[in-house]
Specification:
This protein is α/β, with parallel strands linked by helices. The chain contains 8 helices and 15 strands. It has a 7-stranded mixed beta sheet, with helices on both faces. Strands 2-1-5-6-7-8 form a 6-stranded mixed beta sheet, with helices on one face. Strand 6 (68-72), helix 3 and strand 7 (105-109) form a beta-alpha-beta unit. The radius of gyration is 21 Å and the shape is elongated. The N and C termini lie close together (8 Å).
Length: 277
């Protein structure tokens, strides 16, 4: 997925000799139509992308394109969704920046928390995991009567409460309050039929995957033979930890991920399924 698109086509940028961005307006002129709806697709990779988004929207304004919607594959700064002990509330700042651009409507894929949807104007969340889980179940040949879904914490359990399954487990993590390190994990739910069965862990986001490593270890200790993971968003750091040593297949999207095709990460190809947003 490209960083910024207009009606599905990549917007081109170059740089002036001093490093300032230069929007190639010809890559937009042929795509925008003042008589019909125009959609801007936004995949955040670094802070420069916010400036690019501003340039694209202001240029569309210049063209008098009125019905311009925005699709955000992953809302930047989603983790910083509160102010603690006077810390910057950066998600709020970024949401205000986007609101001020004046999009007619905003779509956010799998928002990390309800704070995102509360802060953005004219927003519609798109909880794609509810569609992806059906594909994952087909691929792993999920048995609805015998296999399990697992939510790694209470937050994921609440988020995906509509994701019905006969057998459901919820993780209860024990953390070191000073370091944030996970010291242990308990399974809440009936695991009497777990021996030799499959389980799909479902959550919205993975970085290095520590929570899912702990979850997989506990699940296998209790007899599960195959452990799969579905996360809507995966950062490039999933390749840096132990995740692929403990998960049979990781199912995710290209909402953030960009490094899956690098040669050093190709060894995980058989254990990674990436859906296009």
């Amino acid at each position: 997925m490209e960083m910024i698109t207009v009606n599905g086509k990549k917007v081109e940028f170059t740089e002036f000799p001093n490093g300032e961005l230069n929007l190639n307006h010809k890559s937009i002129d042929v795509l925008a139509n003042s008589d019909s709806a125009t959609n801007v697709g936004f995949k955040f990779e670094n802070n420069t992308d916010l400036i690019k988004l501003m340039f694209v929207k202001r240029y569309l304004d210049q063209l008098k394109i009125k019905a311009t919607s925005l699709s955000i594959s992953y809302m930047p700064y989603s983790r910083m969704d509160r102010s603690e002990n006077g810390s910057p509330f950066t998600l709020k700042y970024v949401a205000q920046f986007i609101n001020e651009l004046g999009f007619s409507e905003i779509e956010v894929y799998e928002p990390h928390s309800d704070v995102t949807t509360a802060l953005l104007n004219r927003v519609q969340p798109n909880f794609i995991n509810f569609n992806l889980i059906n594909s994952v179940k087909r691929i792993v040949r999920f048995d609805e009567n015998k296999d399990y879904l697992m939510f790694p914490d209470a937050g994921a359990s609440k988020r995906y409460s509509r994701m019905k399954a006969k057998n459901v487990l919820v993780g209860h993590k024990h953390r070191d309050f000073e370091t944030g390190e996970i010291k242990g994990l308990e399974l809440v739910g009936d695991i009497s039929g777990a021996n030799g069965r499959q389980v799909i862990i479902v959550d919205d986001l993975s970085s290095r995957g520590g929570t899912f490593v702990h979850s997989s270890k506990k699940l296998r200790e209790n007899g599960f033979s195959n452990v799969f993971l579905l996360v809507a968003h995966a950062e490039n750091t999933i390749f840096n930890g132990e995740l692929f040593n403990h998960i049979d297949t990781v199912f995710t999207t290209d909402s953030i991920l960009t490094e899956q095709n690098n040669w050093e990460n190709k060894k995980y190809e058989s254990k990674l399924k990436v859906y296009n947003i």
